[in-house]
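Hi Y.,

Following your request, here is the sequence exactly as I used it, all 409 residues.
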Amino acid sequence: MAVTRPSAWRVVWWFGFVSLFADMVYEGARSVYGPLLAALGASAVVVGLVTGAGEAVALVLRLAFGPIADRTGRYWSLTILGYGLTAVCVPLLALAPRLGVAGLAFGATMILLERLGKAIRSPSKSALLAHVASAVGRGRGFGVHKALDQVGAFAGPLLVAGVVALSSLWTGMAVLAVPGAIAMVLLFTLRARVPDPAAYDDAVEAPSVPAERRGWWAEAVGAGLSGDFFRYAVAASLTTGALVTFGIIGYHLTVEGLLPVAAVPVVYAAAMAVEAVAALVVGSVYDRTGPRVLLVVPVLVAIVPALALGSALVAVLAGVAAWGFAQGVQDSTIKAVVADLVEAPRRATAYGVFAGIQGLLAIVGGVGAGWLYEKSLVALVVVVALTQVVALALLVDTFRRSARLRRAG
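Below is the corresponding structure, written out as tokens. Let me know if you'd prefer a different format.
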């Protein structure tokens, strides 16, 4: 008897629920990385280095795992492996304070391994989701997925905040093993129900011609991808690298005495709620009006440090809201543009290259933000603003070129 294929929207929602529970794990932990590392003896520079390096690992190493996914076709296996690392490494952070002087090194290692899981799974997951989202509108598909993702990103920090208030920071890490296990069960169930998401491409587009195979290194650095893709990747990466990590913001909130440690995850949860709204709204607008809606991102990134790293709590909270909105667009609609610029057989590779460029700038941005935070907040604000002027100019130029090519075609 033939098995009925789930509707495209249902699969988008299933992917969203997997991300929901996984986000409870790593966003719950991420909400307190600043205070957590500080409790283990880290300075602001070390917090910036670890959180920036974490983002770099999560992004740069996709250069390897994108081509691996496209060459082997093991999109599901890589997705499952990546989520598995997150489900295991975050709860293990609870052991860090018991390791004495090695606690900081262990904690940093677990954070980096969790981010490695993100690098392993993201190109494959995005490629799988791009197939399914093609049947419902990629802006809306990625937007809905991101919104569900952000429900978990909202719930996880609140869970951690509650546990920290009642017990300790380290118990808060341990309880994240529960949503991690749920995410893995849902993921294996989805894999069994939808072994080949490429079948959903039939709804709106003809099958793509298989991509020409090049050497592994050539594929890893994006040989054959268009100039428009690379211009767009650099522009988007300038916004990613310049967006101050929440590790620095959380560090600022606690070190400056603006909020107690237990309240920091609540602020992060509010930022995740803003991310969810941003993903839904901007994704829907993108499907109707095109990529120019993304021009708001450099503006938001530029104002974040001026507000979020100030001394007035109201301004800081406004900066966190701007940070959340920028994050929401960066992790949803920006990915939809990549799917529109690159054909299906090379999408995982493209996502890897795109993320690799983002990661290179993320490590520079993380370390630079931590260093400038300790030296001069004014200099940090000015440097971020200048990079966003460049990003805005590149985005405008890229969208104009792409529009001309579409009209000529």
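The mean pLDDT is 83.

Thanks again,
Q.
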